[in-house]
Amino acid sequence: MKKILLALAMFAAIQVADAQVKSAADVKKSVEAAEAATQNVKKAVKTATWLKLGQEYVKAYDAPTGNILPGSNKTELTLMMGSEKPVSSEEVTVNNEKYTKDVYADKNLYFNQNGQLVIIEVTKPVYEDALERAVKAYQKAYELDEKHAKDKDVAAAFDYIGQKYVTEAFNKYTFGDVATASKLFEKAADVEALAPLSKIDTSVIYNAGFTAMAAKDNERALKFFKRCYDLGYYYEGGEVFARLAEVDTLNTKKYLEEGFSKFPQSQSILIGLINYYLKNNEDPETLFGLLDKAKANEPNNASLFYVEGNIRAQLGQIDKAVVAYEECAKINPEYEYGFIGEGTMFYNRAIELQTKAQEEIDDAKYMALVKEFEESLKSCIAPFEKAFEITKDANIKAGIASYLKNAFYRFREESAENQTKYEKYAEIAK
């Protein structure tokens, strides 16, 4: 929503919007008049001529949507759209979300369950390539403007067009067309990089890579993730390193180890490293060497011991994992993740043992596995309850409650206290 509003504000600043929404026929006439001016020998060498053409193409692009704003409800849209009415309406599901889809002659509007407009899908543009044409016109204007008197206007136009491409890309992503989304993100990044705007939008570049990878085009994804890497943009938690490791298989180890050294708390990098070492028969203990370096720099960082616990747990080193998790509490008694890590480890271990028991046909072995299962399940309760007690995050509390509900369900008949706790956590986990 914020991005769209910002774009609209910029749109007004470059004076390409009309207070009145023009029909497609009127917009085309304005475009044709502006195009004709570029064929005039005297006018063709003037910056203003090409600025005007760029503005008219942008107007043509915006014509189907007019003054419509995402986030509006149907009452507000009635005021914005006047006499324009939908030809039909239907309930649809897009990306697992339910929407009301209003169909118009040149667009579809998607409303969420709260009645807010979320997606604007243009089905009949005035020109299929209006933005591309606008970019070329503005580039020509910039080329002719030797004194750079209109740099501000051209930069604002490129910024606005870039945001339009971003909005289109997100829409395509929502509809599941990730390949087209990637191309649109790339167009946005390319337009924003043009002089005089010269903006390097790393988040857009990352999105181009992410959607390319989703489309299973690893070669294309590599191009964008490598660009992020070269620009020093690693995304949240160093995610770029994990992505590079996936798409650049010749340098997987390099990116994972470098990423881990910079972002030791990243679960995606951590899991990637563990899987790499195990798959390639390399010593996982190398991870602890990397982690020790991080600890040396931040000896009082409880999260580093949490990471160590996770690694030990992944490797099946239960006792050592417990030691690492408990070290978290020694450093910071209010650090809930150490307790969560320990609880999760024992809970997951219990699930594994339960599965083995269900598959075991030997009675003695079955009973032994059941005993181990119950011991592990009981072991998760204390750390989970401690985490539940100290966390202030309602969502985390609800998540922990789900684990505790399941654990106490198993032991609810052992005591009235267990039954009470089961009911308590079941209610919270709803």
Describe this structure in words.
The protein has 430 residues and is mostly helical. Among the domains are: 66-124, no CATH class; 300-429, Tetratricopeptide repeat domain (Serine Threonine Protein Phosphatase 5, Tetratricopeptide repeat, Alpha Horseshoe), CATH 1.25.40. Helix content is 67%, strand content 6%. The chain has 19 helices and four strands. It has helices spanning 2-13, 24-38, 47-62, 74-81, 130-144, 151-174, 178-192, 202-214, 218-230, 239-247, 252-262, 267-279, 285-297, 302-314, 318-331, 336-359, 363-390, 394-411, 416-429; strands spanning 88-94, 97-103, 107-111, 117-122. It has a four-stranded antiparallel β-sheet with strand order 1-2-3-4. α2 packs antiparallel against α3 (47-62), α7 runs antiparallel to α8 and α14 packs antiparallel against α15 (318-331). It is elongated.
- Output the CATH homologous superfamily of the domain at 300-429: Tetratricopeptide repeat domain
- Rg (C-alpha, Å): 29 Å
- Sum up the overall morphology in one term: elongated
Helix content: 55-70%
Question: What key phrases describe this protein's structure?
Answer:
single chain; 430 residues; mainly alpha; four-stranded antiparallel beta sheet; disordered N terminus
Task: Draw up the topology in text.
Blueprint: H1 2-13, H2 24-38, H3 47-62, H4 74-81, E1 88-94, E2 97-103, E3 107-111, E4 117-122, H5 130-144, H6 151-174, H7 178-192, H8 202-214, H9 218-230, H10 239-247, H11 252-262, H12 267-279, H13 285-297, H14 302-314, H15 318-331, H16 336-359, H17 363-390, H18 394-411, H19 416-429
Antiparallel strand pairs: 1-2, 2-3, 3-4
